[in-house]
Design a protein that fits this description.
This protein is of the alpha+beta class. The chain folds into three domains: 72 residues, Helicase, Ruva Protein, domain 3, CATH 1.10.8.350; 137 residues, Lysozyme, CATH 1.10.530.10; 61 residues, no CATH class. Helix content is 54%, strand content 9%. The protein contains 17 helices and seven strands. It has a five-stranded antiparallel β-sheet with strand order 4-6-7-3-5. Strands 1-2 form a two-stranded antiparallel sheet. Strand 6 and strand 7 form a beta hairpin. Helix 10 packs antiparallel against helix 11.
Length: 352
C-alpha cells in the first residue's frame, strides 16, 4: 500500500473513531456499558434499582449485574394464579392432612423433642402446632422449593400487576436479607412466591421473626432444627398466640341470615355471648367471654360452621387462608393422636 493510501486510511479511521465516541457519549449510562458486562434492563427494574441505591445504599452496578441474570418464570405466574389454598376444603384437606405428614410429624417431634419443648416454654406455642406448620409447608424439609427467589419475586413484582406492590416490597426485603446474610441472591431457591426454608418464610418474615435459637451466630431456616423451630414459635407468638386457649370450635347457626355474619371477617371481634345473641352458638364447652370469628368450610353437602379464636387468627398471619389455618389445626391433632397411640402400644391408624 502506498504512503498516500496509508495516510488516507488513517484519516478515515480517526473520523470513524471520533463519530463513534460522540455517539456513545450521547447514550444513556446503561447503553454505554460493555455488552459483556450487563444487558439493558427494563425501565421498571432500573427504577427499582435506583430506589435501592437511594434508600439502602446498594451499589447500582452490582444490582444491575444481578438483575441482568434474572429470568421471568412462567411457572411462577401459573402457580400464583391457582394456589392450592383456593380449593374447597373437601379437596384441600386430603392434600395436606395425610398419612405421610402424620407419621412424618411424629418422627420430627421425636427427633427434636427437646427443642420443641424449649420453644413451647419460651413462646407458648404447642409442639404439635410447630411440627404441623413444618409438615404442611415443606413435608419436613422435603419440598422447600426449586424456584430461584430472585426470579420468583422479580416475576411477581414486574410481570403480575395484581400484587406487584407487595412483591416489590418482598424483593426489597430479600435483597436486604441477602446482604445481611452474605448470600449470593441468585443462589437462593424457594417457593413460587419467594418463600424460603423449611418454615417457608417470606423475606419480610425472615428478617422480622427468624431467630438464632441455638446462638451459633447464624440463622439457618434450611438445615438448623433449632432455628427452624424457634423461628416458627417466635412468629406465632408475635402474631398473637395465646397459650392455653383454643384454636377453633364447631358452631351451630340458628339463623337464615348467616352470610352477613361470616362477612364480618376472620379477626375475632365478638364474644361467644355476643354471637349467641345473633343466633350462633358453640357446640363445645368453651369460655363464653372469648372473642371469636365465624367462618365456613366447604363440604360436599354444604358449608360447615366454625368459630375461630385468637390462635386461629395467629395462624392466619402465617398464611391468610382459612383452609391453611384449619389444616394446621387438624394435622396437629392427628400427630398428637398418633404419638399417643404409639406410646400406648396401639397400632398406627394414620393410614386410615
Amino acid at each position: 500500500m502506498s504512503p498516500a493510501g496509508s495516510a488516507l486510511n488513517a484519516v478515515t479511521l480517526n473520523a470513524i473513531l471520533l463519530a463513534a465516541t460522540l455517539w456513545t457519549a450521547s447514550q444513556p449510562a446503561w447503553a454505554q456499558t460493555p455488552p459483556s458486562e450487563v444487558r439493558p434492563l427494563r425501565p421498571e427494574m432500573e427504577k427499582f434499582i435506583d430506589q435501592m441505591v437511594q434508600a439502602h445504599g446498594f451499589d447500582a452496578k452490582a444490582l444491575r449485574k444481578v438483575f441482568a441474570k434474572v429470568q421471568t418464570s412462567q411457572g411462577v405466574t401459573r402457580a400464583i394464579a391457582a394456589p392450592s389454598t383456593s380449593k374447597p376444603w373437601y379437596e384441600f384437606k386430603p392434600l395436606f392432612v395425610d398419612a405421610q405428614r402424620i407419621t412424618g410429624g411424629v418422627k420430627y417431634w421425636n427427633d427434636n423433642a427437646e427443642l420443641l419443648e424449649r420453644a413451647r416454654k419460651e413462646f407458648g406455642v404447642p409442639e404439635a402446632i410447630i411440627v404441623s406448620v413444618i409438615g404442611i409447608e415443606t413435608r419436613y424439609g422435603k419440598r422447600t422449593g426449586n424456584f430461584r427467589v430472585m426470579d420468583a419475586l422479580s416475576t411477581l413484582a414486574f410481570d403480575v400487576p395484581a400484587r406487584a406492590d407487595y412483591f416489590r416490597r418482598e424483593l426489597e426485603q430479600f435483597l436486604l436479607l441477602a446482604r445481611e446474610q452474605q448470600w449470593d441472591p441468585l443462589s437462593i431457591n424457594g417457593s413460587f412466591a419467594g418463600a424460603m426454608g423449611m418454615p417457608q418464610f417470606m423475606p419480610t418474615s425472615y428478617r422480622r421473626y427468624a431467630i438464632d435459637f441455638n446462638a451459633d451466630g447464624h440463622t439457618d431456616l434450611w438445615n438448623d432444627p433449632a432455628d427452624i423451630i424457634g423461628s416458627i414459635g417466635s412468629y406465632l407468638h408475635q402474631s398473637g398466640w395465646k397459650e392455653g386457649t383454643p384454636i377453633v370450635a364447631p358452631a351451630r347457626v340458628d339463623t337464615a341470615e348467616w352470610k352477613p355474619l361470616v362477612d364480618l371477617g376472620l379477626k375475632p371481634t365478638l364474644t361467644l355471648d355476643q354471637w349467641k345473641m345473633r343466633g350462633v352458638d358453640t357446640l363445645s364447652n368453651v369460655q363464653a367471654s372469648l372473642a371469636a370469628s365465624l367462618f365456613t368450610l366447604d363440604l360436599l353437602g354444604g358449608p360447615e360452621f366454625w368459630f375461630g379464636f385468637e390462635n386461629f387468627y395467629a395462624i392466619l398471619q402465617y398464611n391468610r387462608s382459612r383452609n391453611y389455618a384449619m389444616a394446621v389445626h387438624e394435622l396437629a391433632n392427628e400427630i398428637v393422636r398418633e404419638r399417643e397411640r404409639i406410646a400406648a402400644g396401639v397400632g398406627s391408624n394414620s393410614a386410615q
